[in-house]
């Protein structure tokens, strides 16, 4: 099995693209590709695309619940949303997002423990 240049530094085989050092999804720097997409297409256009991807996720979930699509379709739409969400995090600002995320996770933890 080949090892990505980046993965080799981490002493780990690339689990997704063992033959292609440019496509190593697990270990390549992720922020850069999201920033590049925002720069190329613009923040407003990517916000619109994010809304569209959310709608596609909603449809996929409804179809899955009716037995019309499998988990593969859910995974595909979830991946699209993940990519768009990462771009939106870049657009909003990672620090602001992390603060909001931590607050939400704290609230969820309290709810799970029965304190919320």
What does the model show?
The chain has 116 residues and is mainly α. The chain folds into two domains: 1-41, no CATH class; 42-116, no CATH class. Helices cover 71% and strands 0% of the residues. It has helices at 5-10, 30-41, 43-65, 71-92, 94-112.
Could you provide a short overview of the structure?
This protein has 116 residues and is mostly helical. Helix content is 71%, strand content 0%. Helix 2 (30-41) packs across helix 4 and helix 3 (43-65) runs antiparallel to helix 4 (71-92).
Give the secondary structure arrangement, pairings included.
Layout: H1 5-10, H2 30-41, H3 43-65, H4 71-92, H5 94-112
Helix pairs in contact: 2-3, 2-4, 3-4
How would you describe this structure in keywords?
116 residues, mainly alpha, 5 helices, 71% helix
* Contiguous runs where pLDDT drops below 50 for at least 5 residues: none
Radius of gyration: 18 Å
Instruction: Please provide the count of β strands.
Output: 0
- Largest sheet: number of strands, sense, barrel closure: none
Kindly give the count of domains.
2
By oligomeric state, this entry counts as single chain
Q: What portion of residues is helical?
A: over 70%
Q: Give the averaged pLDDT, no decimals.
A: 83
Structural class: mainly alpha
